[in-house]
Amino acid sequence: MAAGCGTSTEGSAEPSGTSVAGKSVAPEVPDKFDPCVDIPQSVLDTEGLHAAGSEPDKDEMRRGDIAWNGCIWVVSDGYSATISATNLTIDMVRERGVPGTREAVVDGRTVVITQSNGPDACGLNAELAGGSLEFRVNNPPSGRLTGDQDPCDIGMRLVEKVLPLVPADA
Q1: Which residues of 53-87 are buried (b: 16+ CB within 10 A; e: fewer)?
Q2: Closest by CA position to 61, among listed 1, 107, 7, 109
Q3: Is residue 17's pLDDT more than 50?
Q4: Which of 24, 72, 115, 135 gets the highest tally of CB atoms within 10 A of its CB?
Q5: What is the pLDDT at residue 137?
Q6: pLDDT above 70: percentage of residues in the chain
């Protein structure tokens, strides 16, 4: 799973520099696609995703130079999905060297798939200019509706539904 999985903290810390492990990092999250605004509810409905409350929880955090801006949705009695724009690039995800990492191409964009936080979670990063669109799926086996599904399969379904919505220049 890409860096940043886990509990989010809201707020906006200032970046501490412009490189991570010697790699140049965009100072801000790519902003040509906002998952919280640009994914129509009709697309989320195809998966049964909805906000846990009246609005989706925000995934807005920064760890060092890496930042995320997105939202979290849930399937009642199923999985949760966080979709965030991040300045974490595809190359940075690849360089982590997580065993079993694989790649796919969806809608002309490279997608790196990692399952480093156990069998119930999967991270997928789709290439964006200046970063990536990160999909994090947590699918506990206790989820009556989806617990028997592979979280990476769920993540790929989401990627295939969302990437066509992303502007070509994003």
Answers
A1: eeebbbbbbbeebbbbbbbbbbbeebbbbbbbbbb
A2: 7
A3: no
A4: 135
A5: 97
A6: 86
**Token output for 125:** 């990063």
**Structure tokens given for 144:** 């009556």
Q: Which residues pair with 84 in a beta bridge?
A: 70, 134
Whether 33 has a pLDDT exceeding 60, the answer reads yes
Burial annotation 127-162 (CB, 10 A radius, 16+ → b, else e): bbebbbbbbbbbbeeebeebeebebbebbbbbbeeb
The more confident residue out of 91 and 7 is 91
Q: What is the mean pLDDT of residues 57-69?
A: 88
Work out the mean pLDDT of the chain and round it to a whole number: 86
Q: How far is CA 90 from CA 20, 25, 52, 143, in A?
A: 13, 11, 30, 30
Predicted model pTM:
0.84
| Cα 91-160-8 angle, rounded to 5 deg | 60
Write down the residue that tokens 């040509």 correspond to: 32
- Non-local (6+) Cβ contacts of 86 within 8 A are 2, 4, 29, 30, 66, 67, 68, 69, 70, 125, 131, 132, 133, 134
Could you tell me which residue, 30 or 57, shows the higher pLDDT? 30
Q: What is the dihedral of CA 102, 104, 110, 111, to 10 degrees?
A: -60
